[in-house]
Every structure is written in structure tokens, then in C-alpha cells.
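note to self: dont lose this again. the chain is below, predicted strucutre after it. 425 aa total, dont forget to put it in the shared folder this time
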Amino acid sequence: MANITSFTIDNKDLIAAVSVRSFTITGDIGAEFTLQVFATPASSSVAHKFYNFKTRVFGGCISENKLTVKMKTNNFSGSIVFPANSNGDTYSFLLLPAVDKGTNINFGNGLQNQFETKITQVANSIVTFTPITTATSNYESMPTSVTSTTSPISTNVIKKQIDWDIENKDDGAGGFGLRLIRQPIDTDWYFTPTATYTVKEAVATSDVNEGFKIIVDDLTDLCTGMYITAVSSGSLSGTPIITAIDRNTKISENGGQLTVSLPQTLANGVELTFQARGSSTISKATGAVVDFSNWNANITSATTEQLTKIVRTNADSNTVELNGTRGISGGDFVTIRGLNIINADTNLILTNRTSGGDAEASSGSGEIILDVAQTVKAGTKIYFDGCTLKVTLKNSIKIAKHPSSNKIIYLNLDNFITPGVNTTS
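---
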């Protein structure tokens, strides 16, 4: 009687790219066996595929899908070519001894009539980085998102470059410019889960040090450090943060108990919205190891386009008519420079309006009202500081690990860009 004594292959998950794995079968000289390798698709609607040991590709079930061997030495080695596949298929290895020819499998724990092992090919995931604002009426269409696609098991660090032009809306109602308040920082980036989180029970504790307890029906993608940012009804008190998660205290299978930093008045059935802000918390929530450390107050990630306008008619007052006022903010935020411009005192733009007094920015005419009266000639070029038509964002992001599923990470423009206004409110 001959024995097969071991089957060895690297069982670690496969990336979605083409891969080759070697295997070794150890046993007695004269031992006979058959090996089959087949792919089980992640989708149940797709048929199984079988490895052809001659063509080295997976396909239909034919005789060449079986490797039959009579061992001439104590070791038999081979290799399998796995195709590029982003679907997450599973590959099974089925080793069958020729029992009728006196061969058994004996791996040291008794005789077996077959041996099976599996390798999973992990599907690629996509991380999307995109700018977002709640003030959509003040912006042109957002620039194209930046995406990264690779395997969650890849150890390669990916560097993605952000190069976005954020532009002010080209219309009368929203065209009062953009004001860059500060540089974007790490915590301006955030992830918000797509799952629905419904309050099942909210419990106020008598000890303020114990925090406020909320039982929800799902904990998917939640982690400590996340903010509750919205509720489907009622209102939030302050800015509550998750300080602890108890997965054992739950009403539903995937649910659990959250401890948050501030007491809330929440009725059962209220749906909660969460945000993970900044590299560390985003990584905990998504499983993606992202690095926004380059995004900080000491690095210039955002620059503004210099805004200039031409004086349309001679001016000798606080009101100056221009060949277009789009991009100019009123409201006492913006200063001006230019030939013969008087800035002897605080001189800010109070109002941007049409010559008829309408609260609209104009692409070809319009006027501004200043703190200080000016005497300037038609054709004078004026420079505006404190508002712009375009903010350019340039910086890089490092991704050391991809999440197991697709995730979207947003850059909150509202944190560091403020739309201009018509006049002082």
C-alpha cells in the first residue's frame, strides 16, 4: 500500500491580478493520484470553471481538467496560474488517491479518501476621493473625483495626486465669489457610512461620566471617534461623538449599544447619520489605511486665482462701476488695490449689485460700494484681495491599505471655503 503524505501550497488570499502558486505533493514512490482545481464564482449565476493542466486556463469540464500522476520520486511539484479576476472567486483543490490501485491519503491523522483545500481571490476595492459642499448654488460642477483601485490585501503604498479647480457659480444669484478662509486640514476629509442606523432605545444615565447610551439596529462601519451629524427628526444637542461601542448589548443581530459624549433627546425610530473625520478615524471606520498628514495648516494645499476687474466709468464716490462684478463679495470682507485707489482708512467692499440696485453679480457690468470714496478713471485695473473666482486644490494622499469594499471619502469644502455675499447682512 502506497501513501500520499502531504499536499502543500500557499493558502493566502490571492490578489485580483494574474498570479502563480506552486504546489508540492509528497508520498511514496509508486503512489497514484488525481488532482483537480476548479473555480467557484462569487456570483451564483456564473458557472463553475475547471483548470486545464495543458492550456493552464480555467474553462469547461473536459478530460484535461484532471492531472493524473504516478509518483516516480517522493515529491511531485507543479504550479497553477490564476487569472486576473476582480470578482472574488474561490479556487478549490481536490486531491483524490487511486484507492483501487493501492494508494491512500495519510497525512498523519488517519486514512482519507480525498483531500480538499481552498484559496480565495479577493476582489479589488475602489476608494473614491471627492469634494463636497452644501452650498451647491454657489459652485460650478465639482471636478472629477480621484479614485484608487487595488486589492485589499496588497501591501503596496499608493500615492494619489489631488489637482482640483473649485469654481464659483457663473450666475447672478450665486456668483459673489469664493473666500478661502484657511488651508484644508486632515479633519476636513470625512467618511459617512451608507448604512441606516435606527435608534431602538436611548438611555440617559444618572452618572455623567458614564456617557449617554443609544442602542441602534446596526453597527456596520461605526467606530469610536465618529460624530453624529444629523437625525431624521428632532435635533442634536451639541456635537456628540461616539466614545464607546458595546456589541453585546443589542436588540437586533447586527446592532449594539453606543456611548456618546453628550446627552440627547432621541425617540425610538429616529435615524442617525455619522461621520468619521480625519485619517485615524476614517481608517478605523473603513479599514482603509489613508494618510492625509500632508493636509495641514503649514502646507499650502489651496491657492486662489487673482481676481481683477476694469473700471467701466469715471468714479468720484463710494460707488464704482465695473465691467463685471462676478466673483466679488460684499459684506465687508474684501479689499482692493490699483492705480489711484485710496486705502487711507479701512476700505472694504460693502455691496456688490447691479447698476439698478439688484442683488446680483453681473458678468459684464454692475457696481461695488466701498467704505471709502474713490476718484478713479474708466479703464483702471483693480485687484481684489479676499475673494476669487477659483480655488485650486493641490496635494497628495497616501493609501497604505484598501478597504474590503468600495468607500467614498469626501473633502468638506464648507470648512475652509465660504461663498461670497451680496452685502452686509
